[in-house]
Design goal:
binds iron/sulfur cluster, TIM Barrel, DNA polymerase, domain 1, nine-stranded mixed beta sheet, 362 residues, 10 helices, alpha/beta, binds S-adenosyl-L-homocysteine
Amino acid sequence: MTHTTLIGLSFDELKTELQSALNIPSYRAQQIWEWIYRFGQTSFDNMTNLPKNLRQDLTDRYTVSRPLISMEQCSLDGTQKWLLQFEDKNEVETVFIPESDRGTLCISSQVGCTLTCTFCHTGTQTLVRNLTASDILHQILVAKDRLNDWGPVTESRKLTNVVLMGMGEPLYNYDNVKKAMLILMDQNGIGFGKRRITLSTSGIIPFIDQCADELGLNLAISLHAVRNDLRNELVPINKKYPVTDLLNACRRYAEKTQNRRITFEYVMLNGINDSTADAKELVQLIKGIPAKINLIPFNPWPGSGYTCSTPENIKKFASIIENAGYMSPIRTPRGQDILAACGQLKSESQRPVKHKVTKAIY
Ligand code: SAH
Ligand code: SF4
């Protein structure tokens, strides 16, 4: 018999499930919730404040254990990457990036991606499936296990930030992402603040509005080009959600989130989008939006066909933006030696051939 995982149920769902299946009162559901999300317990046996017979009943029916870690790699710069394998054998990558003042976990939202941004490795893998709320949370739970980051001392947490910047387009799996993020933020569990979570999107406008209303996380927009003709090519979803509409959605997002600063991600592609004219147009375009522009040196992958802008060009581009009053940090590539840097993630998971579909049609 396969055991149902309790990871990924909202607290109300957990309460209802335990009540209807085992007639467990809600204060017990609360205890179990805390064992799972506050202490990272992976076995009912160790939930010591539950009666022994209840622990057994839970073990017979459910699981709180983790997916298989099919690969664990550590970069020379300390970046760690895990390849997680779920029960259906599909795999995703999760990356932990330690810095002096924070530890950021980059999580995936889909196996593959429906979109086909031309510079992105994940974009070459068709969408295999959306991750469930359980799959999304498991990436965080596994990272906390491996980093030994459970326990009461919140000041010394290793994992302080979560970014939805791994494989997939989070806003095309919005319901599961929302559910997982609400569990992540629950004060009786992991208690992650919404200001420590960043959702990156290629610009799916209707869900940007929904996300502002329902989650209020930090928003990052994969802009990468300032004109529709070029953005249509680099980020093809632009044909459906063009630049000016996208920026208006960003204005609404900022308004609804008390002027929260929006991050614009801009991959630096040599000779493609890195001219001084592009930088000047960018500054005009984002006028009135509280913004920071992250310049991401292009990370090559086999067969990508692009090269990264020169360091001089990147610096020149940054200085134009900075002179206009915006922060424009140049992202240091991390974990390149283990293919863990932005846009390098891809798993071997394939859609079964009989279901094979061509990439999204807009
Ligand atoms: N699908 C979402 C989130 C994942 S991608 C999105 O597109 O926003 C995370 C970031 O890495 C995006 O800004 C993406 O455009 C960028 N990226 C993709 N491929 C890259 C590459 N080869 N080099 C540098 N950044 C890349
Ligand atoms: Fe998908 Fe984001 Fe890659 Fe585009 S950049 S293909 S949206 S993962």
